[in-house]
Each structure stands twice: as C-alpha cells, then as structure tokens.
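dude i think i finally got it to work??
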Amino acid sequence: MKLITVPTGIRRRLGTVLAALGIAVAATAVPAATASSAPRSTVALESTAASGSYAALDPASIDRFVRDYLEQTRLPGAVVAVTKGDRVVHTAGYGHTASGQAMTERTRLPVASLSKSMTALAVMQLVEAGKVDLDQPVHRYLPEFTLADRRSREITVRQVLTQTSGMADSAYPDLTRAQPHTLKEAVAAMREAPLAAAPGTRYRYHNPNYFVAARLVEVVSGQPFADYLSANLFDPLRMTHTASVDTTTEMPDRARGYVRAYGTVFSRPHPRWFTAGGHGVVTTADDLSRWLIAQNNQGVSAEDRRIATARTIELTHTPPKAPKDTDYGMGWRRNRQGDGPEQIQHSGQLLTHNSMATLLPDSRIGIAVVTNTGLISGDDAAQISQGLVDLARGKKPEVAKPFSMTADWVLAALTLLAAGLGIRGVLRASRWARRSARRPWWRTALRLLPQTLPLLFLTQLASLLGLLMHRSGTLAQTTYAWPALVVCAAAGGLASSTVVIARALALFRCRQQAISVVAK
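look at this
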C-alpha cells in the first residue's frame, strides 16, 4: 500500500485554517471545551484495477487508472491528453458535464490558467518578429498601462510574463473588484493600483500580469487578442475547437461545473469573471494534445508547422535568474520533486473547473488533464496528472483522494461540536446569568468576549484563506472553494451569536428581577 501525502505547502496552509477553526469553535464552550484534533495529513489508498497491472503508458492503462479515479472520488467528469514526442498516445473523455453530456475527447472545456502559456507564447512571437523587446518597459508599447506607483513605468515585458512585476493580489485583489468587459478596460482599471514590491524583486502570481500581456499583444499586433491567438497559434497547430473568450459567461454552459463537499459533488453555476489572457481559453483533449506536442517538439507541430523557435520554447519553460525565490518561467513552472527528474507544469483553477499540464523533458511526454471540479475542494486534475506521471515512469499509479475528502469529515465533526456547544450554552444561559449578576459589568463583558471569536473567524474567513494561499477572494467565492469550511465557520458563528444573545437576555432578566426585589 502506497502512502499518498497532500503537498506540503498546501497541507501546512490548510492545516493552519483547520487549527484556527478548531480554536474558534472551542470558544463557544461553556466555560471551555477541548478542540477537536486536526485531520491526518495523509490518505492511504490502493488502486482497484482488476489485474493490478499498469505495464506501460498506453490507452488501456490510462483508461483504467482514470476510471478508477472517477469511481473512488465521485469525480463527475474529466478529459485527458497524453503525448510522447510528436505523436498522440491517447486522448479521451470520462464521465459527464454539468449539463449531463457525456465527456469525450472533443468536449470543449475551460482550461483556466493553462491559458497563460499561450498568452506568453503570443508575446514571444512578437519578440521573435522584432516588435517587442523583453527587457524594455511595458509602458513603451502600451502607454495606457500605468499604476498609482510611479515604479510601474519600470516594469518590463519579461517581468510581466514571469510574474515578477511587483503587482500582487495583496495590492490589487482583482477577483474582489467589479469585473471588466475588455482587455482595455482591465488595464485601465489598474490606474489606482499600488505595487506590492519593486519590479523584479519578488515573485507573486497575479492574473492581471497576463491581462497586461494580452493587451500588449492586441496593441502591438493591431488585432483583437482572441483573433491573434487563433491566427498565430491555434490555426497553425490545427487546434480547430479552441478559442479564447473574455468572460466565463462565454464558456460552454457558462462554465457550470461541480464543487465537492462531504465526499459528494453538486453542480453550481460560475459567477461572471473576466478571463482574457489569464484564464480564458476553451479547448478539447484532442486540441490539448497538439499543444503538448508543440511544447515537447521545440515549437513544431506534428505536421511540421513551426509556431516558435526552439530557443523561445525553452525560454518560456525556464525561470528567470532573479529573483531566486521563483520556479516560474513564462506561463510554466519548472521544478523537481525530490530526487526525481524535472517537470514543467502549470495548473489552472476556476471555481468549477481545474486543469493541469505537465511536460516531462527527459522522456518528451506531455500530459494534460481538465476536470469539472474546482479549487481547493477539487484539485482532481493535479491528482490524476500525478498518477499518469507515475504511470509514465513505470510505477503503479495510486488514486490519491483530494485533501477535502478527508478534511471535510473533520469539519463535519467541528460543525456538530459547534452546534452542540451552542445548544449547551443556550440551555445554561440562566445559570451563567445568575453567577454573573454578582460580578462587575466589565468582568462579564470580558467573559463574553471569547464568544465573538467564531463570528470573527467567519467574517474574516476569505481574508485568512487569501493570506495563506496568496490569492484574494470573497466569502461567496469561498463557498465554491471549500463549502464544508464555510458551513463549519457559519455554524460556529451562529452558535456563538446565539449563546451571546441568550446570555445577554438571561442577564437582563436576572438583573430586572434583582431590581424588583430591591424595590419591594
């Protein structure tokens, strides 16, 4: 049996949230309660393949593993593309869409931030043509790009593509703001934005970097961004079912997908987000295979059509030399897990879909997965991708369940604990009031203060997650990302509020009775 561990960084951050929630729920105890223990950070699972044989990266083995994954995790649907060198190993669809249509290799799905690698390559084509210099300020090509911080005029094209521009969610939380309709509007909306750091000094993942990059493509090429991608990337690669859209409302079924809670999934519509340049490409498994081939074949398609030089492709895959805290190239991350070979990857996440593209330079294998679950409660694409990477390296892939499938049951226990403590506090409110009536008012107020912690946790939940994940969002968006966490926080907030109200009313009645007795 193989032990499947949640990635360390995510486990540590989400574990912090659960620990904080446990403390907040415990505050509803009267007079105190022991917080539940945090969830175990690992999940041990075995594959249920009938033969137990995954001898090679072939269609049968891929199908067997992905179907195992869907069965064990209740994932509604996924599409997969696997390539090696300049040939397609397998493309397929599994399960169904949120509208009930069977997934196939030609099902069009949003790939979210996998779009960034396409935007970056579009910019690099202009660099190859001599129309753009990577180390010149963006402002030279895009005078409309200006921020409140005067240092923004120093931001180079390279820094935008490598996410080292100094812009960040902490300074300009784009997903919490009114969503623009065009790239021109998106760039104009940044005029009052500050910088979080000096350009070139820190890496911070930030979608507006790629809004700027896409707008630069529009202005320099003289074409709408979507038209440029179609003419210079998608058509040459014969990605005939691929397009870039401006908003989630233009995606198939308006990007409706699924969220996971307590081991099950339910469909939800996606709110309107602006997506052009950063996360707006819609494509199929068949078309993703063509994209992977070009990436692993030095910019040349399976039909020998070149879209970029080998040097350009390598540059997009390679992180900059400075700052040193980044593994991010231009729409791709380059990393190594333990002592294993290098991987070049990028993930994509909407509230209802997630995706992962992986290149294995040592074997020229490419893997792309898109699933119709999103963000923290999903992350299925990353789990399936890792299984296929294991398969590509001759290992038996294991079905690793998403983190939330374990954590949600811990949250369910905390939810019940919060409800129980709330009921207990209400039932004992009169007893508490009789004891407190003899104390000074300030001591009574201090004893009530801990009861506000669960409510405070609820109101700050989105900010806390944003701080831990380096991404800013709203509480409404958190209901997609981790429904069970929001339910638990809401139960704690409601329980604590009810206890405070019950105690206040009981204390008021107790003191009124005391006044009546004195008056007689």
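Residues 109 and 252 are 7 Å apart (CA to CA).
im so relieved honestly
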